[in-house]
Amino acid sequence: MEYDNFLHYSNRLLMANVLGDVYVDLSKLKSPNSRFMFTRDLLLKHKMLAETLDIDMEYDHPNVSTNLRQQGNELFKAKQYKKAADTYTKCLTGSVSNTECHALALANRSAAYFHLGLYELSLKDARWAMEFNYPSRLAYKLYERAGNAERMLGLVERAMQSYAVCLTRLDEADMSVEKRSKLRAAIEKALTECKDLFTEHKNTMEVPRAVEQLVGGRNENIPALSAFVELKMSKNMGRGVYATRDINPGDVVAIDEPYICGPISDHTGVCQYSGCLNLDLALIPCPKCLLVYYCNKDCMNKANEDGHYLECPIMYFIKSTPGITRMNELAMKWFLKDYLKMGLKKYCLIVDNFSKSKTDPQTRGFDGTGQYKSDNFLTAYSLDSSENKVSIDVLFFFNCIAVDMLHCLILSGFKIPEYYIGFVGASLVRILIVLDLNCRKLNINAPTISFQGKRQLTLTIALTLYPTISLFNHSCDPNIKRSGELSDRIRVMKAIQPIPKGSQLCCTYGIIFRGHTKESRQDICKKLFNFKCYCQPCIKNWPICHYIPNRLSTLNILNSSMADIVSLECEKFVEFIKSGQSEDYCEHLNYLYSFIKLLFTNVKRPFQLYEDCLEIISTIHIKSSNELYISEINIG
To answer: Taking every annotated instance into account, which residue ranges of this chain make up the domain SET (predicted)?
Structure first.
């Protein structure tokens, strides 16, 4: 099963010999509120919910922690850096996070990690120590080490900033005038070397790309879409986005911002404030729960304004709740953000009205003024969840997760009158289902980073819910794809093929005809997304990549009068591919646009040169600037 610990709740009820009756009774309930309250009463009856939030964690006596840190110092002096780091870790495990002992142990472990060549860990500990009562008289040490680690990691601009702060903190240091003077000279030298390296790098940097603009300007009713598109309904695909004018390859058709987002795992180094999502090698933890990380105090404060201070006491329990941990975290973050924005009464009124309303499928998610905005709660909340197609065991599982999380929130002191519990709980269930379909399974447009090894690899770094991009239906032959910086949280969608007036704009949900047979594509669409695909490759059963025609003939030339021109241009394209370097293709983007437009009009698909050109255009449209430029300056 794709959900972690899926049988956690059902096994307990199976042992009690009541699971079958539970599924029968749950299936009879028609309202989301009644299903949630039924599940809540059931888990309470069978004592399956936590009775307290107390965690069995005892801190050592301060003297023990201090002794451990001193032992680590002795090992460090003996240059046994691995043993020293392990000893400092024991000290940290047994000390309270807001004490000076804890901060000193972090700083000491940072030094040990640096000598072990673990510069990322060294930098992270140095940054943490800065936030945790590290003595001001020693602060210069942390900033110097942070600068050194950043240089070794290639973060030259960041190193310059750390060295600059180090110079300002030297005046607080308790040392002789001579020693301070020597240290200042050494730091100034390092700063100058970094400035020279950074200047050299800036001179070789590529010219920044122009700010993307929606073709035709903003759509009057859907601001994140182009003015050249509209929403329409179709029998087979439901609501979709259609061109009101001819759209050319390279035209920007959508610029969307996530309603809610967060890192996909604890190991991606992504700031967890939903409005940031920046990559950072030295994130700082929330000083209370130590389980959520931010790139700076500003993001930490903004996250608290969005509700982290309410989830902070229960983060440990959310992370241990069955299901998809990051999705559970996002669901709680989403609820608390909107609870604080609207207040409990208004929030419950909106979700209750939504559950009872019979909204026109075409206008679902639009507000009272006829606007579909990605930052609007109801727009995100009303996204397709296929809830009526969810199996009873999965629906019960999501209800159990919502009961578990809300129960922990109430145990933490969060006040919800009994009357509102059903509304809040049912909303959490819907949020989980919306996130599961639109944010987890359909995460193809989420921020990623790339790695260049033997072949280009990409790693998804976040879960993101894009309400406007979710309007685009799937095609196994997409005519739009994401564009721009891969790691950006704001997502730009560009046309990669000509899109004639009246045609539907479709992205891919991660399935393309060249890599999967029709049968496998249909199977994936059904199992993951609960629909049957009606794109042209599926209707006409286009062949996969190895069997796509690669020669022109009377069978695939649509316009015989253009046969000679098309043949000549195809020969030119083949020569272009042979003679050019892939990194130079971006300089010939307009040529590629014109070639694919020529083939689109005159050659029957699928055709290998068309698919090759399409692949090149898609690759050029995206970029990743996550590579680091490495300092080659030795640090003494």
So the answer is: 227-510
Distances (CA, A) of 429 to 9, 201, 437, 440: 16, 50, 13, 15
230, two tokens? 């509209």
- The first and second tokens of residue 545, run together, are 């990549």
CA 79 – CA 91 distance, rounded (Å): 19
CA angle 523, 526, 527 (to 5 degrees): 85
Q: CA 584, CA 591: separation in Å to the nearest integer?
A: 13
Q: What HEC string does 164-185 produce?
A: HHHHHHHHHCCCCHHHHHHHHH
Q: Answer whether 592's CB lies under 8 Å from 614's CB.
A: no
Structure tokens belonging to residue 374:
């990605």
Residues 125-183: pLDDT tens digits? 898 888 877 899 999 999 999 999 988 888 888 899 999 999 999 988 888 989 999 99
What is the three-class DSSP state of 630? coil
Q: For residues 485 and 584, give the distance between their C-alpha atoms in angstroms, rounded to a whole number.
A: 18
Q: Name the pLDDT band for 360 (thresholds 50, 70, 90).
A: confident
Q: Provide the 3-class DSSP secondary structure of residue 275.
A: coil
Cα distance between residue 604 and residue 610, in whole Å = 10
Take residue 627 and report the two structure tokens written for it.
Answer: 């590579």
CA distance 398 to 392: 10
Distance CA 154, CA 305 (A): 34
- Residues in contact with 497: Cβ distance below 8 Å, sequence separation at least 6, in sequence order: 249, 479, 596, 600, 614
* Residue whose C-alpha is closest to residue 106's, from 296, 183, 98, 162: 98
Strand partners, 260: 465
Residue type present at position 425: G
Beta bridge partners of 494: 252, 481
